[in-house]
Amino acid sequence: MIWRIRSIITTMASLRPSSVKLSPFSAITNSFTGFHRNWLSLRAEKLGRVDNAWLRLSPSLKEKSVLRLDAWIISAGHAQELKSFKIQNMSISDGRVDFYDKMKQRFLSFKKHKYMGEVEHFKTLAEVQSPKFMVIACVDSRVCPSNILGFQPGEAFMVRNVANLVPPLENGPTETNAAVEFAVKTLQVQNIFVIGHSCCAGIQALMTMQGDENPSLIEKWVGNAKVAKLRTKEDANHLSFDQQCKHCEKESINCSLLNLLTYPWIEERVRKGTLSLLGGYYDFLSCTFEIWTLDFKESNAVSHGSKLSVKDRVFWC
């Protein structure tokens, strides 16, 4: 019986056209559809019916059957490859588990040393928040404001986006100006703090934009700081590209501060002195921090694209 099965396998395999090329992963992408689960253990008398059924099959069905059989044959030859693939996946999975375990330990440490040590404070925060700062920072994983400036739970209402930008009112609603509106009108924050940083990929994208007809989502977003790019080209065109980017990183912060003034409910509070607009720049290459405050003067007409006057500039190193 074994010889007869092998004979059928050889005959069927020989019928496959030489032009049919199978992927090494055919064992994964093809199935045993059309074969009985225990087809190798069929009694000898059933093999005759198989031979007859094979002869009656149309050419297209024969080809499909041959492909399924090839998939079964190839699977044995690539067992070692699949085993290596599984081992590699296991190592990736183990790395993920290790990181999750680290996060678990960090959380438990936070709970033990921070939460339990200030449990009454956290119970108060559960009822209401009253932050003094609204922070607008970049999404870059290297520049977490809470890590750099030590903001504690409840101290800063925060939103992060690509290149820490604030679009002007005329550009319509975004998650950033929605967060700013909530912070100013509902939480009554006293300061809006826009924080930029060195080596910002968003600003680099802005500086290399060519005005494509089909801009990417990132290009559309960083276009909110196109005024900063124009000013950089005017003021720092003689510098290297990296130096121009650094100049634009700071200029874009001032651009966002001016854009904040396009919102009437912000301008009104800044004019009255109940709200301050601050800019900050973190250079993680030298670990320095620069901070300044927008100097709002009623005598100057504030409009989108106007020059910014600053005061109280401080450099931390």
TrEMBL record:
<feature type="binding site">
    <location>
        <position position="200"/>
    </location>
    <ligand>
        <name>Zn(2+)</name>
    </ligand>
</feature>
<dbReference type="InterPro" id="IPR001765">
    <property type="entry name" value="Carbonic_anhydrase"/>
</dbReference>
<dbReference type="InterPro" id="IPR036874">
    <property type="entry name" value="Carbonic_anhydrase_sf"/>
</dbReference>
<comment type="similarity">
    <text>Belongs to the beta-class carbonic anhydrase family.</text>
</comment>
<keyword id="KW-0479">Metal-binding</keyword>
<dbReference type="GO" id="GO:0004089">
    <property type="term" value="F:carbonate dehydratase activity"/>
</dbReference>
<dbReference type="GO" id="GO:0008270">
    <property type="term" value="F:zinc ion binding"/>
</dbReference>
<dbReference type="InterPro" id="IPR045066">
    <property type="entry name" value="Beta_CA_cladeB"/>
</dbReference>
<feature type="binding site">
    <location>
        <position position="197"/>
    </location>
    <ligand>
        <name>Zn(2+)</name>
    </ligand>
</feature>
<feature type="binding site">
    <location>
        <position position="140"/>
    </location>
    <ligand>
        <name>Zn(2+)</name>
    </ligand>
</feature>
<dbReference type="Pfam" id="PF00484">
    <property type="entry name" value="Pro_CA"/>
</dbReference>
<keyword id="KW-0456">Lyase</keyword>
<feature type="binding site">
    <location>
        <position position="138"/>
    </location>
    <ligand>
        <name>Zn(2+)</name>
    </ligand>
</feature>
<keyword id="KW-0862">Zinc</keyword>
<keyword id="KW-0702">S-nitrosylation</keyword>
<comment type="function">
    <text>Reversible hydration of carbon dioxide.</text>
</comment>
<protein>
    <recommendedName>
        <fullName>Carbonic anhydrase</fullName>
        <ecNumber>4.2.1.1</ecNumber>
    </recommendedName>
</protein>
